[in-house]
Amino acid sequence: MIDGLVAGRLMGEASRRVDKAGRGYVVARVLARNRVDDEYIVNVIAFDEAPAAALLALADGDALSLAGGLTPKVWVDKQGVARPSLDMVAARVLSAGDGG
């Protein structure tokens, strides 16, 4: 896993889930862009309460920054084109609503 920082916008709403052992976690998707406007989908999972609560407090389209472990992946779109994506285990979530 790579330590990383990602800035982007929330895609849809974050959702709380529960694993088979009864432990809660939150999942979300973030759309991030690089300097030449290439888009990357970041699949985010948060196990700790602070980043989980921060994700749940955001709405679709809200800007945020994430810190945590990154795993690069590839997915294939409907046209059969391979596209990059990232999986992130969020350790920190920052947004404009944090108030600095």
Overview of the molecule:
The protein is mostly beta strands. It has 1 helix and 5 strands, in the order E-E-E-H-E-E. It has one helix at about 50-55, and strands spanning about 1-20, 25-35, 40-45, 65-75, 80-95. Strands 1-2-3-5-4 form a 5-stranded mixed barrel. Strand 4 and strand 5 form a beta hairpin. It is globular and about 35 Å long. The N and C termini lie far apart (about 30 Å). The relative contact order is 0.28. The mean pLDDT is about 95.
Give the tags.
100 residues, mainly beta, five-stranded mixed barrel, 5 strands
Topology:
Blueprint: E1 2-18, E2 24-33, E3 39-46, H1 49-56, E4 63-76, E5 82-95
Parallel strand pairs: 3-5
Antiparallel strand pairs: 1-2, 1-4, 2-3, 4-5
Mean pLDDT equals 93
> What is the number of helices?
1
Radius of gyration: 14 Å
Q: List low-pLDDT spans.
A: none
Q: What percent of residues are in strands?
A: over 45%
Record the strand order, biggest sheet: 1-2-3-5-4
Number of E-state strands? 5
Largest sheet: 5 strands, mixed, barrel
Taken from the alpha-carbon principal axes, the silhouette is globular
Q: Portion of residues in helices? A: under 10%
Structural class: mainly beta
SSE series: EEEHEE
How far from one another are the termini?
28 Å
Offer a concise description of the structure:
By secondary structure, this protein is mainly beta.
